[in-house]
Hints:
Layout: H1 3-18, H2 22-31, H3 33-42, H4 45-62
Helix pairs in contact: 1-4, 2-3
Amino acid sequence: xxxxxxxxxxxxxxxxxxxxxxxxxxxxxxxxxxxxxxxxxxxxxxxxxxxxxxxxxxxxxxxxx
Length: 65
């Protein structure tokens, strides 16, 4: 994978799954922005995939394989 394809995949996932996410909106309303962000990062399956793609992007940026 190259940097551009990873960034495009991240953008596509954010647009498809995260924009207007009911779960995030409800958690934010009930518990605040920090709790919603924590949920997205640690518990959401889309968040897990985004985290994986971010790690791949970091590997490319640092030159690791």
